[in-house]
Write a structure and sequence with these properties.
It is a single chain. This protein is α/β, with parallel strands linked by helices and about 325 residues long. It contains 9 helices and 14 strands. The protein has 2 domains: about 200 residues, DHBP synthase; about 80 residues, Rossmann fold. It binds threonylcarbamoyladenylate and magnesium ion.
């Protein structure tokens, strides 16, 4: 249903009755449930096929609503003031509001105020936090259009609020603010450099997989899998491969590629981020077996793009 006044009202009503609503944010589509309702959240994990140890981001309309769900320190407040609404998730000590199941039993909560107007209206109408992972089956790439949501989850969810293609196309940056030392849990829509500039300090990158309870389990290796194999930093294309290019010139022997998609002809990392998941999906739909991925600079949004590509290329368990 379109994200007009009637669509928003219906989405809020479905959430209030414990149902599942897919909705657009400026990053990717989320699959939302009432974060205070454990039964609704349980349905959400089932629809995702997600391991239940993975905590969900609670989405709220504004800072006052966030304060009912989490305890802000000075660091969290500074980041919220500067980057909300927007593609930044802040992890902090939780109040009781968001149910244990949505937090996967952690005593922290990940909070985000999305900037997308449809998400904003839905959240302020609903009035409670909405737990929402990306609206894809666990292990698949994140959906950047309502059709992607339906391709993965039709029949498993109650309602889709269609707001068109998501502008950013890459999930939120996650910063752990549960202590006074900020840590980057996931690179995403806000480049790390911007956060460091706002805080006037460097941000530590949390180690992935060095503990039994990873701080951000969504960073587990093959989380963003494609069916096709990925070969990263490809400087040439081999026989039978598809090519995921970035800018010009193309890698050597590019004319061999069975299919070529360029993330951004003008080598713009913002444009590349917006295209990334849709292009990975398109390559899978075309049935290619291996994708050669051209080198992508590790600056700005490039850090998050390379992180997703590395995960998609990781061996599957
Ligand atoms: O842009 C986004 O963040 C999208 C949109 C829908 O908001 N959501 C999203 O959700 O990407 P999901 O579930 O696919 O990824 C959320 C990540 C997971 O890696 C999870 O482990 C981490 O957030 N997370 C959530 N709460 C956490 C917490 N309390 N501590 C550490 N990590 C947390
Ligand atoms: Mg996800």
């Amino acid at each position: 249903m379109l994200a007009d006044a009637a669509g928003i009202a219906e989405a809020a009503a479905v959430l209030a009755s414990g149902g599942l609503v897919a909705f657009p944010t400026e990053t990717v589509y989320g699959l939302g449930a009432d974060a205070t309702n454990a039964a609704a959240v349980a349905k959400l994990y089932a629809a995702k096929g997600r391991p239940s140890f993975n905590p969900l981001i609670a989405h709220v309309a504004d800072v006052p609503a966030a304060k009912r769900a989490g305890h802000f320190n000075a660091l969290a407040m500074a980041l919220a003031t500067k980057f909300w609404p927007g593609p930044l998730t802040l992890v902090m000590p939780a109040t009781e509001l968001v149910c244990d199941l949505a937090r996967a039993g952690l005593d922290t909560v990940g909070l985000r105020v999305p900037a997308h107007p449809a998400a904003q209206k839905m959240l302020s109408t609903f009035g409670k936090p909405v737990a929402a992972p990306s609206a894809n089956r666990s292990g698949h790439v994140s959906p950047t259009a309502a059709e992607h949501v339906l391709a993965d989850l039709a029949g498993k969810i109650d309602f889709v609020l269609d707001g068109g293609a998501t502008p950013l196309g890459l999930e939120s940056t996650i910063i752990d603010c549960s202590s006074d030392v900020p840590r980057l849990l996931r690179a995403g829509g806000v480049p790390r450099e911007e956060i460091e500039k706002a805080l006037g300090q460097k941000i530590e990158i949390a180690e992935n997989g060095d503990t039994h309870a990873p701080a951000s389990p969504g960073r587990l290796a093959s989380h963003y899998a494609t069916r096709a194999k990925l070969r990263l930093n490809a400087r040439e294309v081999m026989a039978g491969e598809a090519l995921l290019a970035f800018g010009e010139p193309l890698p050597r022997d590019a004319e061999r590629a069975v299919l070529t998609l360029n993330l951004s002809h003008r080598a713009d990392l913002v444009e590349a981020a917006a295209n990334l998941f849709a292009y990975m999906r398109a390559m899978d739909e075309a049935g290619v077996s291996t994708i050669a991925v051209a080198p992508i600079p590790q600056t700005g949004l490039g850090e998050a793009i390379n992180d997703r590509l590395m995960r998609a290329a990781a061996p599957r368990g």
